[in-house]
Amino acid sequence: MTSVSIKNLDLNFGAVKVLKDLNLDIPEGEFLVLLGSSGCGKSTLLNCIAGLLDVSGGQIHINGENVTWAQPNERGIGMVFQSYALYPQMTVEGNLSFGLKNAKVPKAEIAKRVAHAAEVLQIEPLLKRKPAALSGGQRQRVAIGRALVRDVDVFLFDEPLSNLDAQLRADLRVEIKRLHHQLKNTMIYVTHDQVEAMTLADRIAIMKGGLIYQLDSPDVIYNKPCNKYVAEFIGSPSMNFFEGEITTDGAPMFVTAGHSIPISNYEFISKPAAGKGWMGIRPEHIVTGEAVDAADFALDTTVELVEPMGSDTIVWCEIMGVRIRLRMDGQSKVRDDDKIRIGFDAARLSLFEKTTENRI
């Protein structure tokens, strides 16, 4: 069953088209992440689903009902914002129950829902505290709990972790994933943080300029990006790129800076055509040491810079006229100015057409 369905959605601010003929179907129980840089339209789309913005065209359906012009409180959603927006004069229990009291929910039902939310979010010892006595992570748990007590089918999260420090973000990210596994509600989550997207999502929608560029699982988006923008946006460090030309006389090759790289083992979307293009390779897919012997292509280079990261090491060097980064083990002994041999396999490459920048 489709939980949320968006058909031909447009949103204009004056002459500016912010969302452009968007179509999106979200199955019941899915965790969908809207990911993109600032200004791509992800929060705008979420606000349209929530009913906080009036759309210029198209339709929004939630659980089969057309809610395009329904008020936010009529849509059966719970929303968690970037700011906690807690009432400072109320206790945690008061913040959780306030909306239910206004909706005239019976006292016994309110107590039951507040107790359930507190148990799920592990904030039972905090119920009598006020927001000023809570940490940032605890406040965000309360904000999530305020949505949870509404007992809705669809939860909307608008960058809920962006105000927290790195450790709290990591901790609460786990809590949100655990919450989804426990509740199995549909969740739509907006973020610009690709780590959040990759770890939380069943599917990711990569957005740019009011359009969805790619909608797929984290694995597919990471390993088979649909175009050069997605390939460059996903991954840290980002993908290395080489400009060159695909030749199909005999075995297919990618030719760049005088080097011919065999690409017979590359998984083409359709039969390869000769022409200009881009070749991309992720830092972790470049191999060193004994693994080079089995690589489709290898060459020697000199280490320019080493960045120890603890769990791994980022190594900068130049090959085929391009400065690249490769990821090595954190215990690697490689140093600046070392001579190393590197290689990679065609199956790990991403090839893009030069003009459209779409995956080949």
UniProtKB/TrEMBL annotation:
Question: In its keyword annotation, does this UniProt entry include Transport?
Answer: yes
Protein's GO biological process: carbohydrate transport
Q: Which CDD domains match?
A: ABC_MalK_N
The UniProt entry's GO CC annotations, sorted and at most eight, read: ATP-binding cassette (ABC) transporter complex, substrate-binding subunit-containing
- PROSITE patterns listed in its UniProt record: ABC_TRANSPORTER_1, ABC_TRANSPORTER_2
* Annotated signal peptide: none
In Gene Ontology terms, what is one molecular function of this protein? ATP hydrolysis activity
Keywords in alphabetical order: ATP-binding, Nucleotide-binding, Transport
- Ranges where the ABC transporter domain occurs: 4-234
Please report which protein family the annotation says this sequence is part of: Belongs to the ABC transporter superfamily.
Q: Report the protein name in the record.
A: ABC transporter ATP-binding protein
